Amino acid sequence: MFSSALLLSSIGAAIAPPSRAEVLVRAQGRCKLVSGGLKDYNGHCLFKHKAAGGSDVFVVRLDDGSNFVFRGPNTQALSVQTYSGIRNVRHKAERDHDVFIWDDEGERRRLSVRLDHVQNPDVTFEDEPQQASTGALVGAAVGALIGNLIGGGDSSTSTSRSRESASVGAPVGELQDLVGRKGGQAEPNLVRRGYIYRGGSTGISSKFSFWEQPGTGNCVGIETSDGRYQKIVYADRSSCD
Known about the structure:
This protein is α+β, with helices and mostly antiparallel strands. It contains 4 helices and 12 strands. It has 2 domains: 20-119, Lipocalin, CATH 2.40.128; 167-240, no CATH class. An 8-stranded antiparallel β-barrel has the order 1-2-3-4-5-6-7-8. A 4-stranded antiparallel β-sheet has the order 9-10-11-12, with helices on one face. It is elongated.
């Protein structure tokens, strides 16, 4: 007959919570996402590297709301979940940045991450004073001297919109990076940027969709042919009513 102590020990082992993921790196930085040779994003991001259950997990959150989670048994055997399924990821750790490369729907995607401000991954608070090691100070100095991998941000979107002509047929400057992209990949990008779908129509060889621009209420027309965005211009307001 089992003793009560052994029984309690067995129950405790059965219901013990899984080990908590260890955060190895937590940082703010800048990211550049290139899809099919076209720049999809270039700006600030948050980066986290965790280890849990014998797996490595990299989490990258872009300021436009996009999230990428790369996971695998080690840093050289990663995968990512996409709209079209799970894709293998090649990870390259360069001297001053990390690069994640994968293929999705026939297009090569490349996400470069450069860390600007690395936070202490230990979130616990200690009252005892701590001294930074010489290695940490040297590392911080080297990090401060690293040049820009990714160019600085553009002027604010709202300012560029106010300066741009919204006459019918004029190109929408902030969306020209989506021209040539597949509609299925570009549409979520439009939604993340705050555009609201207002309807569409079908022509002989092209499809047209109409979106309301956030902040201005301007109507934007997108022509799609062969599954890709061919033209993004301002349209008559009535097309979005």
